[in-house]
Target: BBS7 protein
Amino acid sequence: MEPSLARVDYLQVGVTAQKTMRLLPASGKKATQKVVVGDQDGVVTCFGIKKGEAVPVFKTLPGRKISRLELGGALNTPQEKIFVAIGSEVRGFTKRGKQFLSFETNLTESIKAMYVWYISGADLFLCASYIYNHYCDCKDQHYFLSGDKINDVLCLPVDKVKCITPVLACQDRVLRVLQGSDLLYEVELPGPPTVLALGNGNGGDSGEEIVYGTSDGKLGLTQITGTKAIPRWEIGNEKKRGGILCIDSFDILGDGVKELLVGRDDGMIEIYNFESTDDPVLRHDYALSESIASIQGGCVGKDGYDEILAATYSGWLTGLTTEPVHREGGSGEELKLSQEMQSKISSLRNELEQLQIKVLQERDKYQQSSQSSTAVSSVPAFSVNDKFTLNKDDASYSLILEVQTAIDNVLVQSDVPLDLLDVDKNSAVVSFSSCDSEPNSNFLLATYRCQANTTRLELKVRSIEGQYGTLQAYVTPRIQPKTCQVHQYQIKPLSLHQRTHSIDQDRPMNTLMLKGQFSFAEIHSWVVFCLPEVPEKTPAGECITFYFQNTFLGTQLESTYRKGEGYFKSDNISTISILKDVLSKEATKRKINLNISYDVNEESVRHTLQLIHPKLEYQQLLAKKVHLIDALRELQVHEGNVDFLLPKYRSILEEADQLLEEYKRQPAHLERLYGMITDLFIDKFKFKGTNVKTKVPLLLEILDGCDQDGLIAFFDAA
Model:
């Protein structure tokens, strides 16, 4: 049975952060529930719905922004105490709005994640960027310093597992399971986890099941036992949808089994059903125009009708309700509905007219005051939610910009060469400006003009490893007076590398060794400068190892360093060459003398060429096919029938649209591969002290022939 869900927009509050909206427990079965939401203006709003209108229960005064909102209550009692995290403080409110708690923690940073559980008293599990603290009745119990940023936290239900087991979702693609202040074990995940939820809403029968969502859109369930984690299921992101921000379990289909509700940062709401198998199946999805910050199932709009309530980034509380919009039945019932709708539309029209008059009055007042010589125009503040991430599938960076109001235009500028790639979901009109790369180091200047009511824009860029600098986005919304915000994103020297849990140690490796009078913090800062996904905070301990994979080629890098020495191993000699150049430059800036040595494995060059060659062959074949399309189409028009053509040419005509689309999606892909092979050739001989740049034209001729054996022979003979 497909769920029939109708959209209802209830109320708009200020901009909301992830997991800041909850439904209070209902007073009776199928009775409507109150909604409580915290926004970045610092306001906690609690409201119910009567006759389709939002009726406030309480509203707090504005203040610092609210980063999390959770419900709590003693075991086997309604979870109706409201806890909000504001900066480093936790405040508690009753369901009527009376404040009963104001707890200033000893955290030096703002709280990023919070979980509440009542055991003997109120247990608060709080996380700043890297620090986890457990408080019981406001007394500090346990503390843990994480190796990377903490995105979310929860605790397994103590009434089922009989011990306190907190679980941290960390940016370095692991779940850290704790016992007291100690790390029990780590669970490796396929992507950086952004949100955690208890399986089935209660941890399942054992209380050990945790559902996680990742920033690259993957979803999975793992069982957290006392000694190890047991993966149960995992769903990839084949549809290339956004990252997951919120998860809930609720029986929206009314079949007695709770469905999994998922909210993504591209505005998708998904309903997964556990039909006959243990693995969930996507049953229904619904697209909103902005990211889903919070999601929960319940009964909000009308008694007896379940719905999914979502809070979006700009503060809209939107319901997907099972209540039929057009009821079937007697004409009296239809007439009653029609009258209700008419009165609602009439009141909305009146409200809109009053707002338009008020806007005109304020605009006139502003224009008159601006004539005065003493008048100062205040710049309107607006919030921008941005995300700059590397996609493993196509080795490109996604830049997502989301504004609380409509975007007028976005100007993108870069001081390093970048390719702008097409994005299917992007309806903005892009125009390129010519830029002078020599005096100003300006390689890219493009403007995206957005259509009316566009609040979210997604761009894709691909960088070249070895060339590093800054990408800047100038965001201008449709507000008066005109104002703009600049957001900067670092393009790192090894920008196409992504963290991974392990590498293949059997590959032929080149090694770079550094020794010198540098501290652990200094060499760590150099690695942060060179590579993405490395935590900015210096790791605890005396030594650290990170593993990386190149998303474009599949080559690997192992980085191990401590105070006074660093070892970098890669099967790609160009990676070692880039690291050598950048680390030398960074050490010279700080006047640190480095002793650099390296061990080059000749076999690694052949290995890297074997990795590149299939990609090169595919791209050359694609380019040849695309160049033939126009001639073949002309032949088709003249002859009318193409049966006389060879099958390979007929297939090119049949697949012409797909071939053109693929070629358009990957501009300069072939040039990138040519550049990588050329760099590999130059780097191989650079480590031998030989300059082979004069032989590059000969190499390019061989590349056009695309013979793998001939290419390897050329590298060996040169």
About this structure: Residues 82 and 372 are 49 Å apart (CA to CA).
